[in-house]
Amino acid sequence: MNRQSKTITALALAVCALGLGAAGGVAEERAAGPTLALANAERAAPNFVGLDRWLNSAPLTVADLRGKVVMVQFWTYGCYNCVNTLPHVTRLYETYKDRGFVVVGIHTPEFPFEKSTGNVEAALKRHGIRYPVAQDNEYATWNAYRNQYWPAQYILDQNGKIVFEHAGEGAYDEMERVVKRLLERSN
């Protein structure tokens, strides 16, 4: 290896080491707390669009839900992580539904068999889901929210603004605190 090749190799290794160090710091930071983001409160929630069917409810719009605190949850019944969130989301709904809290499940399939309404209905029954769920088989609402993850939760304030976003499992206490704070604000 000539002197120029050694210099380039050393420089490349140094850059990689710096990158790994930075990535390691990010990983440590993420491990220290839940993966969540407080959203820009000025971002209006997109409407529910292009939905195939509504279950447990007549069709809803974001405008219909003004005055309520709303959790929009993207999920699919075949996703292990989504299924793990359902007891927490269902408990949150049952706890606060009489105080002006609504959950709207947006069932967006990952696989073709998850498009079946009968399969989704069976999942709702199996998991005791009584809140509104819409089938988003063509990803229209998913795309309107610019969503990329199963599961993902978006909490909307009473004015239809997204004030909290979370992707994945966890952050259940944080979500409940946001819901409670918003509900208390309306009293």
Kindly describe this structure.
- The protein is of the alpha/beta class.
- The protein has 2 domains: 1-33; 36-185, Glutaredoxin, CATH 3.40.30.10.
- It is built from 5 helices and 7 strands; from the N terminus they run H-E-E-E-H-E-H-E-H-E-E-H.
- The chain has a 7-stranded mixed beta sheet with strand order 1-7-6-3-4-5-2, covered by helices on one side.
- Strand 6 (152-156) and strand 7 form a beta hairpin.
- Helix 2 (80-96) runs parallel beside helix 5.
- The chain is globular.
- 29% of the residues are buried.
Based on CA inertia axes, which overall geometry fits?
globular
- The CATH architecture designation of the largest domain is 3-Layer(aba) Sandwich
Q: Average the pLDDT over all residues and give the rounded result.
A: 84
For the largest beta sheet, what order do the strands appear in spatially? 1-7-6-3-4-5-2
Number of strand elements: 7
Q: Give the count of helical stretches.
A: 5
| Quaternary status | single chain
The overall number of domains is: 2
CATH fold type of the largest domain: Glutaredoxin
The separation of the N and C termini measures 74 Å
User: Rg to the nearest angstrom?
Assistant: 21 Å
Major β-sheet profile: 7 strands, mixed
Low-confidence stretches: 1-39
**N-to-C series of helices and strands:** HEEEHEHEHEEH
Considering the protein shown, what is the CATH homologous superfamily of the largest domain?
Glutaredoxin
Strand content: 15-25%
Determine the structural class based on helices, strands and strand pairing. Answer: alpha/beta
- What's the CATH class of the largest domain, please? Alpha Beta
- Helix percent band: 40-55%
